[in-house]
């Protein structure tokens, strides 16, 4: 019997699949996130939901809204965790200015598309998105179905 090599755990904590469906995603940027200790422990367990995650700008800083980090049952008793608190994003001033100007001028919105581990730190992937209309969503689904059919046909032959 051959021994199986243990697989390394995935570095991805959570994905925002709804963002890809509802928006045309363009530029992607990586940012750090300021977390509390109990949040890091919960993220190690994979307790993150980011269905309606988006970013707002206030006083020249970026903040993540809508991310739900469920607290563990083993958190200490003197901490009262807030699962939906606003979390600060850590980025350079030039990146913040560039993102804020593109959001203000071009009508984009800034969405969180993924949260993952990188060198022991939690990183957030942000994407500039422009909202899709209903007919755009239908066209995307139609194209995806056609690609699946093509792959099935090619696999049969």
Describe the model:
The protein has helices spanning 17-22, 37-44, 93-106, 134-156; strands at residues 12-15, 23-33, 48-49, 54-58, 61-65, 68-69, 87-90, 109-118, 121-131. It has 157 residues and is α+β, with helices and mostly antiparallel strands. The chain has a single domain (12-132), classed as Small protein B (Small Protein B, Chain: A). Strands 1-8-9-2-7-5-4 form a seven-stranded antiparallel sheet. A two-stranded antiparallel ribbon has the order 3-6. Strand 8 and strand 9 (121-131) form a beta hairpin. The model has no long low-confidence stretch (mean pLDDT 84).
Give me the secondary-structure topology.
Blueprint: E1 12-15, H1 17-22, E2 23-33, H2 37-44, E3 48-49, E4 54-58, E5 61-65, E6 68-69, E7 87-90, H3 93-106, E8 109-118, E9 121-131, H4 134-156
Q: Keywords, please?
A:
single chain; 157 residues; alpha+beta; Small Protein B, Chain: A; 7-stranded antiparallel beta sheet; two-stranded antiparallel ribbon; 9 strands; 32% helix
Number of helices: 4
Main pleated-sheet profile = 7 strands, antiparallel
Our Rg estimate from Cα atoms comes to 19 Å
Q: Tell me the span between the first and last alpha carbons.
A: 35 Å
**Beta strand %:** 25-35%
Protein name: SsrA-binding protein
GO biological process, one term: trans-translation
Region (Disordered): 131-157
Pfam family, one: SmpB
Short description:
It contains four helices and nine strands.
């Amino acid at each position: 019997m051959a021994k199986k090599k243990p697989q390394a755990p995935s570095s991805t904590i959570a994905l925002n699949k709804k963002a890809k469906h509802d928006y045309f995603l363009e530029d992607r940027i990586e940012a750090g996130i300021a977390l509390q200790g109990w949040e890091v422990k919960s993220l190690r367990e994979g307790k993150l939901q980011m269905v309606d995650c988006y970013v707002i700008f206030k006083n020249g800083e970026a903040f993540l809204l809508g991310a739900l980090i469920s607290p563990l049952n083993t958190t200490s008793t003197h901490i009262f965790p807030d699962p939906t608190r606003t979390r600060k994003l850590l980025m350079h001033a030039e990146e913040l200015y560039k993102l804020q100007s593109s959001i203000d001028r071009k009508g984009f919105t800034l969405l969180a598309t993924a949260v993952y581990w990188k060198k022991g730190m939690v990183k957030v992937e942000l994407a500039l998105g422009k909202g899709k209309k209903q007919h755009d969503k239908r066209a995307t689904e139609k194209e995806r179905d056609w690609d699946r059919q093509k792959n099935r046909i090619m696999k049969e032959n």
